[in-house]
Specification:
Elements (H helix, E strand, L loop, with lengths): L1 E6 L15 H12 L3 E6 L19 H9 L4 H13 L3 E5 L5 H15 L4 E4 L1 H13 L5 E3 L4 H12 L10 E5 L2 E4 L33 E2 L2 E2 L10 H5 L4 E2 L2 H15 L3 E4 L8 H13 L5 E6 L6 H9 L2 E9 L3 H7 L6 H14 L2 E8 L6 H14 L3 E6 L7 H8 L9 H6 L19 H19 L2 H10 L1 H6 L1 H15 L1
Parallel strand pairs: 1-2, 1-3, 3-4, 4-5, 8-11, 11-12, 12-13, 13-14, 14-15
Antiparallel strand pairs: 5-6, 6-7, 9-10
The structure holds cobalamin and iron/sulfur cluster.
Length: 498
């Protein structure tokens, strides 16, 4: 079959720089190619303009631009998609959906049907994994949804459609029949992740628009064993953590190095250090093979120690991202169920500052029940623990999260949206019943002032010269290896300042 996989547009509508490649689609493409299908991936968000903005802290203020793009059917991006469809003439289209860009996904499905009429459209990804029923009910342009891990279910569906076989036995598949939506049982996870071929990044239509660093996105495992109430990880991965063999990961690093000249990698696992021995083994392998790479990863406050951090540093780790979330023990424990305390955060920060790997703390505000005092505790904690970069996000209740379900049971949120809602409501309010009731502890005006205060304070903190210098220092070995990265970083820095 001739298959086109689409990552719908979002950042391009709001003129933001998009990082990385749509990895999930490159995995599916690799599996389908191995089965003899002709596959291409169209990433509608691939970076066409390198001067796009980089400061993601105010991204929600641009969501109206996204909605404008969604509703302007003669927008260049939609014309581009139509041209791609006419050019490739796929027999089947697959679309990846994150909740924030679900409207763009539905619009892409509509354009597919406009251009190619009877071509089946399949959706998958974090959003349909938990909202398959709604998606199939509200969009006439979507025929099938794959829930959860896609490799097995999708290739079985492609086989069934190509050979006109029944599909009511394909696990993980939801579909429509005679106006009714049906859901087959959940798919079983792939036992051995090493059996999955490496992501087919070469099948991205516009692969020249990525930097070598964007190509360095790797998942060394899948899933996270924790259940933080605000997080969507469990939607696709059901709290099960699986890991690839170190040799398998090394093979992928070497492949990316030789194909794209990548020296900076990003291990995007939800919690990279959850299995300590494996991290040490990977570090040893990187050093033994003399790969001379730099890399970053996500860790948890309670899954780091001095020896491991030193090993990571000597194996090229130059950036660590860590979820701090809140400065209030009550919020961390009772509301977020994060399983960490402020005291643990402080010890972890001390350790990170000593070891000297550049680290980013991720903070969250606007969590249900959070008071002004608790928000200010978060700000005070950030200043006290001194991350090299402090990233502040505003809580958005994604479907499938525990807080989303709690919000529904308390009557603050809705589980029902129409297609028109998705086309007209800002993604940050998809789940909110009353968009003027952002949080249950204060009125809208007060909340907006606090949000502005917090964001401004974080922004001022990050602009400090010493912190900018630390960032440059953490990437200095990279600049020596590849001076073009310095140039790219300068461009991104100017875009971030703007
Ligand atoms: C890399 C990444 C990014 C990259 C995206 C790169 C890209 N173009 O895809 C960047 C940094 C840009 C990003 C941004 C954001 N991200 Co992000 N991101 C991730 C991360 C860490 C890894 C994604 C990945 O590659 N996973 C590995 C692959 C194998 O899994 P997968 O993508 O889910 O794909 C599998 C299945 O879902 C399925 N599948 C996927 N697509 C399709 C399509 C079809 C047709 C089929 C059949 C199957 C299928 O099959 C795949 C293989 O098994 C995930 C966390 C995670 N663990 O997945 C968060 C995650 C996807 N991000 C998330 C969020 C919230 C965001 C942001 C909103 C953050 C923010 N506040 O700005 C933005 C949104 C961006 C936007 N609007 O476009 C949430 C999504 C929640 C949701 N309900 O949508 C996740 C799950 C994190 C989390 N735990 O909450 N992100
Ligand atoms: S926030 Fe991090 S630790 Fe918590 S469930 Fe999500 S990925 Fe796991």
């Amino acid at each position: 079959m001739n298959i086109l996989l689409i990552d719908p547009p979002f950042y391009r509508f709001i003129k933001y720089y998009n990082r990385y490649v749509p990895l999930g689609l490159t995995y599916l493409a690799a599996v389908l190619r191995d089965k003899g299908h002709k596959v291409l991936i169209y990433d509608a968000d691939a970076n066409v303009d390198k001067s796009y903005r980089m400061d993601y802290s105010d991204i929600e203020s641009k969501y109206h631009e996204y909605l404008k793009g969604i509703n302007n059917l003669s927008h260049t991006i939609w014309n581009e998609l139509a041209e791609v469809l006419k050019d490739i003439k796929p027999d089947l289209v697959g679309i990846n959906l994150f909740t924030t860009k679900v409207a763009a996904g539905f619009r892409s499905a509509q354009i597919t049907k406009d251009v190619l009429h009877n071509v089946p459209v399949v959706i998958g990804g974090p959003h349909p994994s938990v909202k398959a029923d709604e998606a199939l009910r509200i969009s006439h342009f979507v025929d099938y949804a794959i829930r959860g891990e896609g490799e097995i279910s999708f290739s079985q569906l492609v086989d069934a459609l190509e050979n006109k076989k029944p599909y009511n036995n394909i696990k993980g598949l939801s579909f429509k029949q005679n106006g009714q939506v049906y859901h087959n049982p959940d798919v079983d996870f792939i036992d051995d992740l090493d059996q999955i071929p490496y992501p087919a990044k070469d099948l991205l239509i516009n692969h020249n628009s990525y930097t070598s660093e964007d190509m360095g996105l790797i998942m060394t495992g899948r899933g996270c064993p924790f259940a933080c109430t605000f997080c969507s990880s469990s939607g696709v991965w059901k709290k099960v953590a699986r890991f690839r063999a170190v040799e398998n990961v090394i093979g992928e690093i070497q492949q990316i190095q030789s194909k794209y000249g990548t020296t900076q990698f990003s291990f995007k696992d939800d919690t990279f250090t959850v299995k300590r021995e494996r991290v040490l083994e990977l570090c040893r392998a990187i050093k033994d093979r003399k790969l001379r790479i730099n890399w970053e990863c996500n860790v948890r406050v309670n899954f780091i120690d001095k020896q491991m951090l030193s090993e990571m540093k000597s194996a090229g780790c130059n950036s660590i991202k860590i979820g701090i979330e809140s400065g209030s023990d009550l919020i961390l424990t009772d509301i977020m169920k994060k399983g960490i305390t402020v005291a643990q955060i402080k010890s972890a920060a001390e350790l990170l500052n000593k070891v000297g790997i550049h680290w980013t703390g991720y903070f969250l505000m606007g969590i249900p029940t959070e008071t002004e005092a608790e928000m200010l505790q978060t700000l005070a904690l950030m200043r006290e623990i001194k991350p090299d970069f402090a990233s502040l996000s505003v809580f958005e209740p994604y479907p499938g999260t525990i807080l989303h379900d709690m919000g529904i049971s308390k009557g603050y949120m809705t589980n029902d949206r129409t297609l028109d809602d998705y086309y007209n409501i800002s993604p940050k309010y998809y789940a909110m019943k009353d968009t003027h009731n952002r949080i249950d502890t204060m009125d809208e005006n007060k909340y907006c002032l606090l949000e502005k205060h917090m964001k401004d304070s974080f922004h001022r903190y990050n602009r400090h010269l010493m912190r900018l210098f630390k960032r440059v220092r953490s990437r200095s070995s990279l600049y020596m290896k590849k001076p073009t990265i310095l140039l790219n970083d300068l461009k991104k820095f100017l875009a971030w300042l703007s």
